[in-house]
Specification:
It contains 22 helices and 2 strands. By secondary structure, it is mostly helical.
Length: about 500
């Protein structure tokens, strides 16, 4: 099943690449739009089939994966093709497959310029394969290879289908930042291997840092911490993100915010915390401080934005700050909050970027002044869904965004015993201010865009100027709305999967 999970998008990417070489025509274009839907739908089916058993307590192992495959890959270096899923990884596997399917459905009707449906589909499916490979890898070299695979397709999504010189600049900035992060991750992996003599994540997690000197652990954790921080994105290494989101096509923004940002936080939980506990104990306070700084800076930047897409992009910096704060507490409550926050952010911010993309497609601008207000009157379905996305993202109780941030604050109140409680009490207070600012900027967005005056200052505005959300858009967006409500009302949909594996991972910290 793991092979099928990885093979379907890879096979689809190759087929669509070959299809892109054929002369353009209506039949080729139609096939190029629907083939990704079929293959990504099959991938989602496999991902859902992986769920049973992943929530079971670890069977004597810190990492106890299901559907495990472990065969020699590069024997001379001790590198193995070792893959599997557990409760930590499987929610992100399902989220990746779901968002990719919804993106391909959305693209059937709304393909960004310059078109080229086959090439676009090939890039999206290659990106999905890299993301899935990252979440199922249990060998550090395999993890790094999959971690790198996502860079090229995301670069082309921004540079080619973002359109214009600014998009190419944003894509270049994205690739430079993320390659720097990748070099640091590689340094951390090499340091671990030189000290432990193995790349196997299951074995390394079982050892819990045994055999790796404290100084080596701190050095390796610092390299991984900074490398993963670029992807997360952690302040002040976040500056590539707003430009990338602003210039990316809608599908690129959805996958970037919904899944790619989770690679950094997943790497911290999967690799850094269980393998390098002494490094984590030493540097967790710094991670907590930078996470809270990101919450405040991201929220304040949102208050100053006049571009809707940039506002949602900066909101990701704040929301991912809560995820990183949960990880910094080194407690089961905090790490479970982080994993739940990852899923909630993927659902809600993915929905928001879909909706903002729908607005931009209709009005050819994301500027608040040009858009004016009264979106709920002009396009009731689009405006109503945007209002729902805003209140979900600001953390309204009963929706998915509430639980991860609430549990992260609770974990900061009672961090691991090895950490400074007074420091985390201060971080808790500052992060709570961030939640208030988050509420302020989303309510401001609702007032200005959804409920404000119906006449804007730019072209294309005015009552009834554009069509409301069409059927295919609603099909792509409805699952995100439904899951946001379901996870908000019953967070155990995610926590039931993560709880036992997280407790096993954190046994080395004594809690």
């Amino acid at each position: 099943m793991i092979i099928a999970l990885l093979a379907l998008p890879l096979l689809g990417s190759v087929l669509l690449g070959l299809l892109a070489l054929r002369p353009a025509g209506s039949t080729v274009d139609r096939l190029a739009r629907w083939l990704p839907v079929l293959l990504s739908g099959g991938t989602l089916g496999v991902a859902i089939a992986l769920l049973p058993g992943t929530s079971a307590p670890a069977g004597g192992r810190v990492v106890d994966p299901r559907h495990e495959i472990d065969v020699s890959w590069v024997a001379s270096l001790g590198v193995r093709f070792h893959v599997g899923v557990d409760g930590v990884s499987v929610p992100l596997v399902v989220l990746t497959a779901l968002l990719t399917l919804l993106c391909t459905v959305y693209t059937v009707r709304t393909l960004p310029a310059p078109g080229r449906a086959a090439s676009f589909g090939a890039v999206v499916l290659l990106l999905e394969a890299g993301l899935l490979g990252t979440f199922v890898a249990l060998d550090l070299v395999l993890f790094f290879v999959a971690f790198e695979v996502v860079l090229a397709p995301m670069y082309f999504l921004i540079a080619v289908w973002g359109g214009g010189e600014r998009a190419r600049h944003a894509a270049g900035k994205f690739i430079l930042y993320t390659l720097l992060g990748s070099v640091l991750v590689l340094v951390g992996i090499a340091t671990i291997y030189s000290a432990a003599g193995t790349f196997d994540l299951v074995e390394l997690s079982q050892r819990g840092g045994s055999g790796i000197a404290r100084g080596t652990q701190i050095a390796a954790f610092l390299a991984l911490f900074l490398g993963f921080a670029v992807k997360s994105p952690l302040w002040p290494l976040h500056t590539w993100l707003p430009d990338a989101h602003t210039e990316a096509p809608t599908v690129g923004s959805v996958l970037l915010a919904g899944v790619l940002l989770k690679m950094g936080t997943y790497g911290l939980v999967r690799v850094a915390l269980p393998v390098l506990p002494e490094g984590a104990r030493t540097l967790a306070p710094a991670l907590g401080v930078l996470a809270v700084a990101g919450i405040i800076v991201g929220s304040l930047c949102c208050l100053a934005q006049t571009d809707v897409k940039r506002l949602v992009a900066y909101s990701s910096v704040g929301h991912m700050g809560f995820v990183l704060l949960g990880i910094a507490t080194l407690t089961p409550v905090g790490v479970n909050a982080a994993l739940l926050g990852n899923i909630a952010h993927g659902l809600i911010t993915g929905l928001l970027f879909f909706l903002v993309g729908g607005v931009k497609d209709r009005y050819h601008t994301a500027d608040l002044a040009a858009l004016g207000g009264g979106l709920a009157e002009r396009q009731p379905r689009l405006g109503g869904l945007l209002a729902f996305g805003c209140v979900a993202s600001l953390g309204l109780p009963g929706l998915a965004g509430f639980w991860g941030e609430a549990f992260a604050l609770l974990a900061a109140y009672r961090p691991a015993a090895v950490l400074s409680r007074p420091l985390f009490a201060v971080l808790l207070a500052i992060a709570a201010v961030g939640t208030a600012i988050t509420t302020a900027y989303f309510l401001r967005l609702l007032r200005q865009l959804v409920l404000g005056p119906t006449v804007g200052t730019g072209a294309g505005t005015g009552p009834g100027a554009m069509a409301d959300a069409h059927r295919l858009e609603l099909v792509a967006w409805a699952p995100l709305v439904l899951l946001t409500v379901l996870v908000g009302l019953y967070p155990r949909l995610v926590l039931g999967l993560t709880e036992a594996p997280v407790r096993a991972l954190l046994e080395v910290y004594g809690r």
